Amino acid sequence: MMQPPYNLVPAPWELTGNGVVWLYSIPKDFNLQHGFLADYQKEGYHGRLGAVMLMDYMTSDVGPYQELLYLPAIFKLGGKLTFSVSKIFVSTQASALSGRANWGIPKEVADFSFLNFKEGTRTVEVSADSQTFFLAQVKPWGPKFPFTTKLFPWNRIVQKHQNQLLLTKPETHGYARFASTVKLNSDARFFPPIHLLKPLATVRLSDFLMSFPVPEVIS
User: What are the structural domain ranges in the chain?
Assistant: First the structure.
């Protein structure tokens, strides 16, 4: 029997790092055209609130890695209101393979490049096959404030994996600042063209601790 090139690292995971979250009210037509929705997500589509998340994990159970993901909307899956990932890129094969196996998250591999500037401004480029498909520059402003996802009502994701619905309730706490998006562009062939939308808010996360538990099978 052939051995996989990477050992799968089972849940739970603990991760630390920094990131950016863009919150959106996303029209359904946009998601049907650009959102990379799976059939079960189309069937369970419920509401407009969505997000783009860009994470720079300094530590995790599979080592440091970066991540860009799209949460298209709120869904009703397995009788629960929940988020669900429709498109996601990570920087390592270890994260991609284990993320698919553990939680059914459809991770693909891409290259990430970060540049830091004065006053906390940060630029990131994400590319595949030497072609940049996502570019963002974010500048934080205002004071830092503590945050925790325990206060968020739909702090869960549901993904379909091997004909089962897997519900995961990650928890994150750390610090946040509001931010301005200086540049943003996305190639619709690879990732939803979110530069066509205006975010409700942009938040820069720092020094967070995230716990990603074993998922619950709900279907």
Answer: 14-217
Give bridge partners of residue 204 from the DSSP assignment: 20, 177
- The tokens for 219 are 């279907």
Q: Which CATH superfamily is domain 14-217 in?
A: Acetoacetate decarboxylase-like (2.40.400.10)
Segment 186-213, tens digit of pLDDT: 999 999 999 999 999 999 999 999 999 9
Whole-Å CA distances, 176 to 66, 73, 143: 18, 22, 8
User: In this structure, what are the phi and psi dihedrals at residue 35, rounded to the nearest 5 degrees?
Assistant: -85, 0
- Of residues 5, 50, 52, 60, the one with CA closest to residue 26: 50
Secondary structure element (H or E) that encloses residue 99, with its range: helix 93-103
Per cent of the chain over pLDDT 90 is 87
Helix (H) or strand (E) holding 96: helix 93-103
